[in-house]
Amino acid sequence: MRNKVGKIYTVILGVLLLCSCGGKQVLIDETREFDRAVWQRFTPESFDVKVENPDDYYRIDIEVVVDSALMRNEQLPLTVNMYSPDGERRMFYAYINLVEHGRWKGEMQKGRTKKGLRVMRQTIRPFFTFNDKGVYRMDIGQATSQYELEGLYSLRLDIERTEIDYKALED
């Protein structure tokens, strides 16, 4: 009987710990599709990101759906401009590697009739922090030399709360 009560307390404690950890917090997970699979050079995509816990760490991922028959680039350079609620601007570059060792990366996209569409996801900032609470505007633009970048069907921005694994960093 005593052993059974101990197991029950262990289960209850485990459930309480899981509930108190907060779990995964998604700040944004939005996809933008491009007309005719073309992204104009000077037309950035804007996303509004609501931040409640600025002291947490967040992982920023970009996912693109690319038509390998139309895309001429092996890498997709991006400019990211972030505007804080008080008007501060932070800017950085990000690169999505589309080809590796001469082969297209990513998985073939299911559910579309067109062949050659590949889904590629890449983390552009593994541990990002925000300065303040509030709504940030994130503008993501393509930074290739082409005015019209052909072969890009969609761009997805995914920002989620993450934890730093200090133990893994020591190895």
Q: Please, could you describe this protein's structure?
A:
By secondary structure, the chain is mainly beta. The chain has a single domain (about 25-165), classed as Jelly Rolls. The chain is built from two helices and 13 strands; from the N terminus they run H-E-E-E-E-E-E-E-E-E-E-E-E-E-H. The strands form four sheets. It has a five-stranded antiparallel sheet, with no helix packed on it. A hairpin with a 5-residue loop joins strand 5 (about 75-85) and strand 6. The longest helix is centred in the N-terminal third of the chain and has 19 residues, at about 1-20. It is globular, with a radius of gyration of 20 Å. The N and C termini lie far apart (about 45 Å). Mean pLDDT is about 85; it is low at about 5-20.
Please give a quick description of this structure.
This protein has 2 helices and 13 strands; from the N terminus they run αβββββββββββββα. It is mainly β and 171 residues long.
The level 1 CATH classification is Mainly Beta
Mean of pLDDT:
85
Query: Strand-and-helix sequence, N→C?
Result: HEEEEEEEEEEEEEH
Strand order of the largest sheet: 1-13-4-10-9
Rg from Cα: 20 Å
* Model regions low in confidence, pLDDT < 50 over at least 5 residues: 5-22
Oligomeric category: single chain
Q: Number of helix segments? A: 2
Structural class: mainly beta
What's the domain count? 1
Question: Mind telling me which CATH architecture this is?
Answer: Sandwich
Total beta strand runs: 13
Cα-to-Cα separation, first versus last residue: 44 Å
**Fraction of residues in helix:** 10-25%
Beta fraction: over 45%
CATH topology assignment:
Jelly Rolls
Main sheet, how many strands, which sense, barrel? 5 strands, antiparallel
- Principal-axes shape call: globular
